[in-house]
Design goal:
By secondary structure, the protein is mainly beta. The protein has three helices and 28 strands. It has two domains: 3-28 and 39-91 and 110-181, no CATH class; 185-452, Distorted Sandwich (Beta-galactosidase, Chain A, domain 5), CATH 2.70.98. The longest helix is centred in the first third of the chain and has 21 residues, at 3-23.
Length: 463
């Protein structure tokens, strides 16, 4: 081969290697000439690590109408453009989740997976979900892999300090580059939620709520979740506990960022009569569980105040075998309760008024439970007469049936007050749990900010 042929062949080899690197989603700016401007327009400054990010499909303008199966989410991290974990969850025109998976134990029951009306294309009401920790620098569009069909630049901004980070949703003409990392898995045949720091199982009798919780390989620390209601109807004492709930597992949708798991529940009334069933979708992220409740009142409870007297509602978690752990709440954020199986004077006299969260810390890790009564599903505020206060009882010998393990060690949660003042309409509330790794005093603020000071998202479509 002549010198000219060798040089031509060598040039083609270099060109092929460069194009291959671009298509693989990896770009190394050090390969550029020293005097060439780099690919980064702005460096990532966002420091928040535990937040999930949800982007409504309507602002992903360049990708609207394209095939979700051909989309990849990229971030520029450590000098490379790489795929990061994400999922796109489809919603119906009515705003209901489209759940496409049937649990194995229900495969022969006639339950059918749902299908989106737009047959897998990105709609305005769909949602893109990813983790804030995976976002990266802002880059120039000319380093994108050639041949992509569309790209939306997504900026994530912290409203507290203005810090920013970016990701890029791209549609490819064929199979997109994808990350193999999962933050959460829904594992069968156990039917458990598993993440890097905890496992959660469900009661066969009441699959709407967790039946077991293990943190970093610990024993099951949960005996039972309890819902207790008492009131007087026409002067007659009426009480209800969680055994009156009838719950059945339904469809789910599992992705690398979150699992959406549907159950259908009703309340046993008198004899064979039950309330109409309602669907509830619980959402499980790698470090966060969201259990939403939607109450539709066809009448004003307040208008029947003479008939309904002294209603009390409490929702609690009755733990087991966590002696040596500690608990604190926002009603007394500087005061810890030591869990030792009995109430001391500090615990007996603690002021739990207006408590909305509690934090439990022990050798395997920490977790926080938060009860939210003032938000709607989109995060906007709702006006409600409901207030909450702490329920705390620690006594290894005191029964609170029904329960699996005798004693309350401790039994902790919230009273819901003011239900007698509810008007006709729709009311939402949420129980949210956070698993906190490497907990230090005050770290709970990072998790409270996820809801109270949510990350902002915006898009800049690339031409």
């Amino acid at each position: 081969m002549k010198n000219g042929g060798i040089i031509s062949w060598f040039r083609r080899l270099i060109l092929f290697a460069g194009v291959s690197a671009l298509f693989s989603g990896i770009y190394t700016p050090d390969a550029r000439p020293a005097d060439s401007p780099g690919p980064v327009l702005e460096k990532k400054t966002l420091a928040r690590m535990e937040d999930y990010v949800v982007v409504p499909g309507k602002i992903l303008r360049k990708n609207l109408g394209l095939d979700i199966g051909q989309m990849g989410l990229l971030a520029f991290r450590e000098g490379k453009l790489v795929p990061i974990p994400f999922q796109i969850d489809e919603l119906s025109p009515d705003g209901d989740w489209v759940l496409t998976q049937v649990p194995p134990e229900l495969e022969n029951t006639g339950l059918k997976p749902e299908k989106d009306d737009d047959d897998g294309s990105l709609d305005a009401n769909d949602e893109l979900a990813f983790m804030a920790r995976d976002a990266g620098d802002r880059i120039k569009k000319d380093i994108y892999p050639p041949g992509i069909l569309a790209a939306d630049e997504i900026m994530v901004r912290d409203p507290v300090d203005g810090a920013k980070a970016w990701v890029y949703l791209c549609s490819f003409p064929g199979k997109p580059p994808l990350s193999d990392r999962h933050y959460v898995d829904y594992v069968f045949p156990e039917g458990k939620i598993k993440t890097s720091n905890h496992e959660m199982g469900f009661s066969p009798k009441l699959p709407i709520v967790p039946g077991s919780v293990s943190i970093h390989g610990s024993h099951n620390i949960l005996d039972q979740l309890k819902i207790r209601v008492e009131t007087k109807l026409l002067g007659i004492r009426f009480s209800m506990n969680e055994t009156r709930l009838v719950s059945k597992l339904s469809l789910y949708k599992a992705g690398p960022i979150r699992v959406i798991r549907r159950t259908r529940s009703a309340v046993k009334l008198i004899g064979i009569f039950r309330s109409p069933s309602a669907a509830v979708e619980n959402i499980y992220y790698g470090n966060i569980t969201i259990i939403p409740f939607r109450i539709k009142l066809s009448f004003s409870v307040k208008a029947f105040s003479k008939l309904i007297k002294d209603p009390t509602i409490r929702g609690t978690a009755d733990f087991q075998n966590i002696h040596g752990w500690r608990i604190k709440t926002d009603a007394g954020p500087n005061c810890w309760f030591n869990i030792d199986g009995k109430m001391d004077e500090t615990e007996k006299n603690a002021n739990g008024k207006n408590a909305t969260w509690l934090l439990v810390s022990g050798p395997p890790g920490a977790f926080m439970i938060r009860l939210v009564t003032d938000r709607m599903p989109d995060g906007s505020f709702q006006k409600t007469p409901i207030t909450t206060s702490l329920y705390y009882l620690e006594d290894d010998l005191l029964r609170d049936p029904p329960e699996s393990v005798p004693g309350q060690s401790p039994n902790v949660g919230f009273w819901m007050n003011g239900t007698e003042n509810l008007e006709k309409g729709i009311f939402y509330f949420y129980a949210i749990s956070y698993i906190i790794d490497n907990y230090t005093d005050g770290k709970e603020k990072e998790y409270l900010d996820i809801l109270d000071k949510p990350l902002e998202v915006s898009t800049e479509p690339l031409g």
